[in-house]
Design a protein that fits this description.
Length: 136
């Protein structure tokens, strides 16, 4: 019997979508207003889900407090109120699109979750735009 537990979180961050190897005009054509050289921000919503077998001793798949601590340490502290392009090492050479942010978050959390568990990250960039990543 496999069960999924989920924990919601949020963080606020600024970013700019652009490629350093493209001209401003090409970046503007592809990324539009998200290519603003002065950056722009989002109030990101995050849902992290872990699926696995229920531990017969505890009744948990994973203690939600443990999951909350992992999210706080791996996502909220390093990303919240940061400029992703300038302040977060993972995005120095990686365009911080919602897709790339979701994959980076998944990789950071995956290192802290036992391999027996499946992991899914849903990142809401806006109320209408979100990305889901479950690993490769």
């Amino acid at each position: 019997m496999r069960v999924t537990i989920s924990r919601k979180a949020h963080f606020n961050a600024a970013h700019r979508l652009y490629r350093k190897d493209w001209s401003f005009e090409k970046n503007d054509a592809v990324f539009g207003k998200c290519n603003n050289p002065n950056f722009h921000g989002h109030n990101y919503g995050l849902t992290v889900s872990v699926t696995g077998k229920i531990d017969p001793e505890t009744g948990f798949v994973l203690d939600v407090k443990v999951l909350a601590d992992i999210i706080r340490e791996e996502v909220e502290i390093p990303f919240d109120h940061k400029n992703l392009n300038l302040d977060v090492p993972e995005f120095v050479d990686l365009n911080p699109t919602a897709e790339n942010i979701a994959v980076v978050i998944w990789n950071k959390i995956r290192q802290r979750i036992h391999a027996d568990f499946d992991l899914e990250v849903v990142l809401n960039e806006t109320e209408r735009n979100f990305v889901t990543y479950k690993g490769e």
